[in-house]
């Protein structure tokens, strides 16, 4: 019986299971079907809602005897559908609110007046950046009755006790308190005909330390600031298009804002339009305050030089700062000019006590990288800063950027980074020219089965172990001891594929003139590069002290093996005020050198990039701008670069500190020579 009973159960269970499975599948199918219907209904409702808005935007003209009635005729029928449609159209609202919130974050009992606040959607958005408790009172002021009714309903549903909806003219409203910490015009100033009166009214109650923020559509004037300038066709098209809806997006409003207030920050950009492919409407964000001592910042438009990649070449500086500091005697009286590169060494100069550092690069992407580091030092805590620039990744980069970093970046840097935040998802140090090259090399090594060897070299516990692993790698043993013909063919293939001029420029930042200097020394480029890596592997322990190549091999730094600015005590020093001594410029090195006197100048390998005629010009300007006793340093891919004699004739005592043919140079070991020039007193031979 036992056997028979057990034998019968599987049949019964199978039948029950089949019934249950069938029921479950039917239930799942029904659920999916209902979900599909629900989504279909949602899409249909969304399309109907959008059509309501579009119909009034495109086919309905505002009518009425006064401005209030015209607004009501235009916005009244679309009031309930207003918010969802505008969320994909009014791209300047969030940057404006984030920029204002970032500057008011430490204050309490704020009074905010949102003029032309419509449905109160800005209030909802602002609470993403500042908690409600920061505000003593918020006034949503609008002249359109239907929009105010939607705002009142929103206030009631949200339970906002300190938010007041006021149906009033922006030109006539004054908050009961008589003053406001923040006044905003969110896509409303262009719709207020007497905009002078609206701005005057807002300025009349803006507190002395208050902010006025504007986000709106715009066109430039015929001659405008560089970051605003538009060609005539865009000016004509967009102004005429918006004019059909009684929206004036001309430059007069911003000009009047800058007459009454001092500009603190602005962004000029463009955003997509729902259901309108290809066209992108221009918008701006402008933050101002009452006039104070100082100057209003004007940012020039800077394009990347010809033949440069659309991003940075270097994610870190590729000059070892240790030997630099040994010969430069940095002190608080120094004004130092340096090339930016990755920006690490500019920050290191501040930590060594430089009174002022000017970091210049002709590539705006390099400036954007250093500017982001500066902004992060000023506004982030160490843990977030380390994740961004130590690990090269941050899981909350979008939020941190929008709330804390973007509001303080220049327009050029903001434009660069808002499209490349994914760098911090994939790994910052595998981006850019050299970063991409490192990533490709990693992939190739993994493909040929050397990935584990790379990890072992990078994490070798001692220099001796690192040497042992390096010397026993299959590739190195083949190159040193393999058949001569096969080695020759292999080296030629590697040189053709990996060390050609295109790869060296876009991946390693080695320009054609520097490539030629290497060849003039009679050294094949593959031998030159092998010397670099072999010298590092044999003489410098990557895991404990050589953060340059450890970063290349792993894509991140370690807290005990990283550039100085990434260490927490140094971060605190920079944050406490040292960072304010740094100026980041996007310009040519020569133009910046001409602009002021410098006691110390770091040329890096810049002179390798130039022609003999330019060497003469640089030497003359160095003689003019570097006072007696001042120091200039540079590195070169050549053992004896000819321009060293040119600098000497200009009135400098030039000394070669080290050369690659005399042995290992420094942790980077990438150059053939390192020079120091001291400015002598008296005139130069070029005078």
From TrEMBL:
Q: Where is the composition biased (Basic and acidic residues)?
A: 8-24
Source superkingdom = Eukaryota
Q: Which SUPFAM superfamilies match?
A: S-adenosyl-L-methionine-dependent methyltransferases
Q: Where is this region: Disordered?
A: 1-28
Identification of the protein by name = Betaine lipid synthase
Name the source organism. Dunaliella salina (Green alga)
């Amino acid at each position: 019986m036992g056997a028979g009973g057990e034998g019968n159960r599987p049949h019964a269970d199978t039948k029950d299971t089949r019934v249950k499975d069938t029921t479950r599948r039917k239930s799942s199918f029904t659920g999916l079907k209902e979900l599909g219907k629900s989504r279909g209904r949602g899409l249909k409702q969304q399309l109907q809602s959008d059509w309501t808005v579009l119909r009034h935007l495109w086919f309905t003209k505002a009518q009425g005897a006064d401005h209030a009635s015209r607004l009501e005729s235009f916005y009244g029928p679309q009031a309930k559908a207003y918010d969802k449609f505008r969320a994909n159209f009014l791209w300047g609202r969030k940057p404006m609110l984030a920029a204002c919130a970032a500057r008011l974050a430490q204050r309490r009992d704020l009074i905010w007046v949102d003029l032309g606040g419509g449905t109160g959607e800005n209030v909802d958005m602002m609470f993403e950046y500042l908690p409600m408790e920061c505000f003593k009172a918020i006034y949503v002021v609008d002249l359109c009755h239907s929009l105010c009714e939607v705002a009142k309903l929103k206030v009631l549903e949200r339970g906002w006790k300190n938010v007041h909806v006021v149906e009033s003219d922006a030109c006539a409203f004054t908050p009961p308190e008589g003053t406001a910490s923040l006044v905003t015009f969110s896509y409303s100033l262009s719709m207020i005909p007497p905009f002078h009166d609206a701005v005057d009214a807002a300025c009349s109650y803006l507190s002395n330390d208050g902010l006025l923020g504007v986000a709106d559509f715009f066109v430039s004037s015929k001659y405008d600031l560089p970051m605003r300038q538009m060609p005539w066709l865009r000016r004509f098209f967009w102004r005429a298009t918006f004019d059909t809806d009684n929206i004036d997006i001309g430059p007069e409003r911003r000009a009047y804002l800058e007459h009454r207030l001092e500009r603190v920050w602005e962004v000029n950009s463009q955003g997509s339009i729902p259901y309108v492919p290809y066209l992108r409407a221009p918008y701006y964000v402008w933050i101002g305050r009452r006039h104070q001592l100082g100057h209003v910042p004007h940012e020039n438009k800077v394009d990347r030089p010809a033949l440069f990649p659309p991003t940075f070449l270097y994610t870190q500086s590729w000059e070892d700062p240790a030997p630099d500091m040994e010969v430069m005697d940095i002190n608080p009286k120094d004004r130092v000019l340096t090339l930016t590169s990755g920006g690490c060494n500019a920050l290191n100069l501040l930590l060594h006590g430089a009174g002022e550092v000017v970091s210049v690069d002709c590539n705006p992407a390099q400036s954007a990288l250093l500017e982001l580091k500066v902004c992060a030092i000023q506004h982030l805590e160490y843990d977030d800063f380390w994740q961004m620039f130590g690990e090269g990744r941050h899981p909350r980069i979008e939020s941190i950027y929008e709330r804390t970093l973007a509001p303080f970046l220049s327009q050029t840097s903001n434009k660069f980074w808002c499209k490349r935040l994914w760098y911090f998802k994939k790994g910052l140090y595998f981006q850019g020219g050299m970063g991409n090259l490192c990533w490709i090399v990693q992939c190739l090594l993994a493909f040929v089965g050397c990935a584990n060897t790379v990890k072992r070299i990078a994490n070798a516990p001692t220099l001796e172990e690192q040497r042992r692993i390096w010397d026993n790698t299959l590739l190195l043993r083949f190159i040193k001891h393999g058949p001569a013909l096969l080695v020759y063919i292999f080296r030629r293939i590697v040189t053709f594929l990996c060390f050609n001029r295109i790869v060296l420029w876009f991946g390693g930042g080695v320009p054609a003139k520097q490539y030629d200097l290497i060849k003039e020394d009679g050294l094949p480029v593959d031998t030159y590069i092998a010397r670099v890596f072999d010298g590092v592997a044999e003489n410098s322990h990557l895991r404990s002290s050589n953060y340059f190549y450890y970063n290349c091999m792993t894509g991140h730094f370690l807290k005990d093996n990283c550039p100085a600015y990434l260490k927490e005590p140094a971060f605190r020093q920079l944050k406490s005020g040292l960072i304010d001594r740094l100026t980041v410029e996007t310009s040519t090195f020569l133009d910046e050198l001409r602009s002021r006197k410098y006691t110390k100048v770091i040329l890096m390998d810049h002179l390798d990039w130039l022609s003999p005629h330019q060497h003469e010009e640089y030497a003359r300007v160095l003689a003019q701008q570097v006072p007696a006793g001042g120091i200039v340093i540079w590195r070169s891919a050549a053992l004896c670069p000819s321009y060293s004699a040119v600098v000497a004739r200009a009135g400098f005592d030039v000394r070669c500190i080290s050369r690659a043919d005399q042995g290992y140079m420094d942790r980077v070991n990438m150059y053939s020579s390192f020079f120091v020039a001291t400015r002598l007193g008296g005139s130069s031979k070029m005078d």
